[in-house]
Here is the input.
Amino acid sequence: MSIVVEGSSSPRVRYAAERLKVAIGDKLNVTLRIAPGLAREGYRIESREPKHVLLTASDDSGLLYGALDLARRAQNDQPLATHDAPVFTLRGAVIGLQKTFILPGRKVYEYPYTPELFPFFYDKSFWSEYLDYVCDQRMNVLFLWNGHPFSSLVKVPGYEYALEVTEDVFRHNVEMFHHITKEADRRGVWVVQNFYSLLLPKPFADHHGLQTQLTAPTPESSDYTRKALTEFVKEYPHVGIMPCLGEALQGIDNQRYWLCDVILSGIKDGMKLAGLTEEPPVVIRTHATDLRKIMPDALKVYKNLYTEAKFNGESLTTHEPRGVRQQVHLAMSTLGSTHVSNVHILANLEPFRYGAQRFIQKCVQASRDRLGCKGLHLYPLAYWAWPDAPDIASPPLKQIDRDWMWYEAWARYAWNPDHDPASDRAYWTSRLTTVYGSPNAAEHILDALNDAGECAPRILRRFGITEGNRQTMALGMLLDQLVDPSKYRPFEELWESQSPPGERLQEYAERTWKNLPHDGETPPQIVAEIIAFSDKAVKAIDQASAFVTRNREEFERVRNDVYCIQAMSLNYAEKANAALCVLRYGYSKDVKDMRQAREHLAKSLEHYRALAKLTDKAYHFANTMQTSQRRIPVAGGMDGQPANYHWRQLVSLYETELEEFDDRVKRIESGKGDDIDETGIKRWPKASMQVVGDVGEMYEVQFGAAVFADQENAIRSVAPEIAGLTGIRFAKDRPYAPVEIEVAEPVYVLVGYFKSKDAAWRQPPDLETDADAEDLGGTEPVLQNAIAIDGKLPPLDIYALRYNAGRQKLELRGEGAFVIVGVVPQSAALKKRDAGRGV
Ligand code: SER
Here is the structure.
């Protein structure tokens, strides 16, 4: 018996032959032949004489995928003759070289490649197992994500001091990176390295007295980065490059320059040095930029460009993406290059398993049909904690094992989005039968996973603040976040792009009160659906139990996940009902509505307690991003200290919420009303502060004071918390030059942003597109609608930004006017409130 290869002797085809040999032993004679005429990566298997099979393909990857298919068919005694080809050109998996915490003295995304931080990177047996797995899924790309990988992987002439790792680690990194790319290539997998802009290696930044993350290029940062790209292409000519043109780097002009004159120019210099005649592929993210304004210029200087945009932001919410994000996808996919759908961080699915193949199939179809994508780029479910799963288990579960169905479903539909439902169901029940031992178990488990998987997308898209990983959905939400999301910087794209048309809670309450017709998906509809789906899922998983004959321990974990999803759904359902009652009370002023809200709130707490109990021994944490960038329901940890990452840590928060709500209902019942009495509110304490230099003038924030140096607009009414503080004012119509202040203690600078999207007004930074925004704090207002100002100025929200003692330059991101209304010590307790002025 033999395997004969004709027309190629590449390592990839040798790998294909090896895999085939292991799988079929001496069962068959096989000829693997390269022949023109088949689709890219496609293959044909023909059964010639008995026991002789001809496998043809037009390229090495086609032979590889054909060999894998043939091996499977021979092992399962299925008919051998077939032909197939993938629908999506790029099918990629992601590994984050990222952590759940921020390193001391560093900023977000800054993790050098070292054995301490990323042991798996140095483990050849890990790579061999993982890359075999990726290859078995017929995925052909592996994206590695990091903030600034170059200073771990190349030495840049003239910038030797920029290297971030020791010489030993550097040598090891180079060896491993070559090893990984070579081993990946054998398996038909192309490695792509991602990086953010404008990030610098820390030793380089320190040497030049710069921050590691810059909002605009400097001559030395441009020169270094260009040369780093050159060295990277020279050293690793077959690795793809994936720039993210933000988050730190601001402004389209800066980003256009950075792509065309720094990154692409550096790559072209590298091509010359490496003797490459073909441009290495570059995959550009649409995140934190508007690529529509940059691609035309980029295509003038470089042809081999791919583009990538997020499918549903940083969550999984709908297979009907629409709105502005759909437009971004369509603008990219109509450029003619290959456009990739990025299933990014799954902030609403974490930490549970997700095996809803029915939902996943529709998402892949939507990527193709609604967005025009030809590629898929799939994140792991627990991105920041690769490679371990979040379950409490000894030894830890590996994500590729635990989440096999997650990977297999996306990869299967990226190869072919159109499997018909009947044969598809047969496929999945057979896969689940292999795992759990019986077809009966498999049928029920599949139903449970599909139904459970309908809940999280619905909950977030109808009730959430954001699809970004600023929100961890499984940890619940505060009632106030449901009733009055405007305090928490709600991200409109969540319901305008990443959701079918429908009504938010506020809109629904208003329309109901006014007897107006409803439109699209409504909150009560979602409440009913998540209760029904999670109930069906629990019934199905319970029915499966008696039939399970294999992998009982894992089955019990799956079952617990389904229970958790039910508890989470009921927690949200009751809380959404409570919110609707509170919103109705806003119109009716009928205390019965508040009493009813209280009942729902008490029930939602019971479900939360149940969830905390179910997860207590099952999970290490609810989410893998545990830093202070996480804001909803509450902030994560700072300075590398984890906090608020487990349900049990938040039980008392929700208990206090219920107690406070109870008090509120009692106040209303006793006739004291619900309006806030401002007479008891004191001014926040003043910190001593001096403006240094001639930018900005100090003034007292009080009735009649002008808020700009060059305008009349005077204060008509001001919240008592800030009345009497010392503000700093600037000319409204001149660009802001950073003001410098001298302070004796750590302070909060109270910055007022006007609530208007007009370009005249500076916007507070968004964690959705700028993960470093939380560096100074101040990503949510502490005092909403704080001042009413003459001249029809928009309402003003106050944000508190942290600064250390000493001389401080107040560099605020963005452009346009804003005001500073005070400086207070960080020891001051700033109680969040809506002061209701100017609205
Ligand atoms: N929000 C970040 C990004 O989109 C990290 O996932 O790149």
In short: The two ends are 83 Å apart (CA to CA). The chain is about 40% helix and 15% strand. The CA atoms of residues 558 and 584 lie 39 Å apart. The first helix runs from residue 11 to 24.
